[in-house]
Amino acid sequence: MDYGGGYSTTSYGAQGGAGGGGFMGGSQSGSQGGAGKGTYGKDTLRPVTIKQIVDAQQPHPDAEFKIDEVEITQISFVGQIRNISTQTTNITYKLDDGTGTVEVKQWIDADAANSMGTLDGTVSKPKLVENEWARVWGRLKAFNNRRHVGAHVIRPITDKMDITYHLLEATYVHLYFTKGSLDSIKQENGTATGNQEVGYGGGGADTSMNGRSIPNVSMNARNVYRVLRDSPQNNEGLHVQNIASLASMNVNEVLKAGDELLSHSMIFTTVDDNTWALLEF
């Protein structure tokens, strides 16, 4: 993938869907025979959060959905499986990634399953179970004013760091479309901000981090940010208890400050909701 000069599509581990029961970019619902009606050639595979799926805009029922004012076709996201409902023709999963919930439908292809040597295809497909995390590649759809994702591929996540990687990528792409490319942000802010760092001495003046303008936040939020920036830590970041100790704050103050930083996309959660790391650019 390449987010430098222009947003590029990404297979994000699925090799564009070619790596096993996947989908071909350009496969759309409905007939492919209608000339000019398909979107083949402009399909993208965009990493998103479930909240972005829920908030996606659709100008009219036949239009493509839009996120950040940009059309989406294929999407990729992660979530914890809250429920599995097996029907004759499809399996419906309810996924939750901490930002929202969405239903994912995967249609059962009996002919394909039989060709694999089993009636249900369970020998060839990875096991999906409730309360475990999964990654989905598919397409956002609406039926009777209810949204769901038609899954091309859904697989269990074996490495929990994949969850963090995905959320980081979804955040990066969102910022690309809302703030511009990293190079353009650096060019716009480089002269004005120089090498300033986030200040913690007092006041609420805007500051910068690696060329990115930082909005006004409270003193407690600045202290939490400073601890996360300056304290030794592994890839998982720091737990709120550790932050409270290092910042000489109580846990409730740290949690409130963390909500501020999360709302400004300055930090992100890692292994759980109370373990944070800096979101750097």
From TrEMBL:
Residues 189-212 are annotated as: Disordered. Residues 174-274 form the Replication protein A C-terminal domain. The keyword Ubl conjugation does not apply. The keyword DNA-binding applies. It is found in: Nucleus. SUPFAM superfamilies: Nucleic acid-binding proteins, Winged helix' DNA-binding domain. Keywords: DNA replication, DNA-binding, Nucleus. InterPro entries: NA-bd_OB-fold, RFA2-like, Rfa2/RPA32, RPA_C, WH-like_DNA-bd_sf, WH_DNA-bd_sf. Pfam families: RPA_C (PF08784). Belongs to the replication factor A protein 2 family. This is Replication protein A C-terminal domain-containing protein. It comes from Lepraria finkii.
